[in-house]
Amino acid sequence: MADETKVCGTCKKVIEGGKAVAAMGGHFHQEHFTCVSCKTPLIGKQFVDVEGKPYCTECHASKICPKCKACNKPITTKATIALDAKWHQFCFKCKKCGKPMMLDQQFRVEDGLPKCLTC
Description:
This protein is mostly beta strands. Helices cover 7% and strands 27% of the residues. The chain contains one helix and eight strands, in the order E-E-E-E-H-E-E-E-E. The strands form four sheets. The protein has a two-stranded antiparallel ribbon. Strands 3-4 form a two-stranded antiparallel sheet. Strands 5-6 form a two-stranded antiparallel ribbon. 19% of the residues are buried. Residues 6-66, 67-119 form the LIM zinc-binding domain. InterPro entries: PDZ-LIM_domain, Znf_LIM. This is LIM zinc-binding domain-containing protein. One of its GO terms (molecular function) is metal ion binding. Keywords: LIM domain, Metal-binding, Repeat, Zinc.
């Protein structure tokens, strides 16, 4: 059985010599498998597939992930959505006492931030 012709997902040219990188359901020349944002080579590194485009974890965090309303850092895990914003679960806390707010906990809003009923 003949080898399947592999076409690079970036340049759309045939990959010669068996030096194809298989990723995201396709193939790439080794030099073309890079982060679409910063162009860092991704062979052997973790990356994130966003709508068929590879991003290094750093660019994904800084350019794609939503930012937490409290700390303004990227949210790369499960987020709490409240007050028309996204928060890290550990950042969604009472503005006065600093205790974490539970998802089913009632709270007041003061200056756009949660405040527990105790405070």
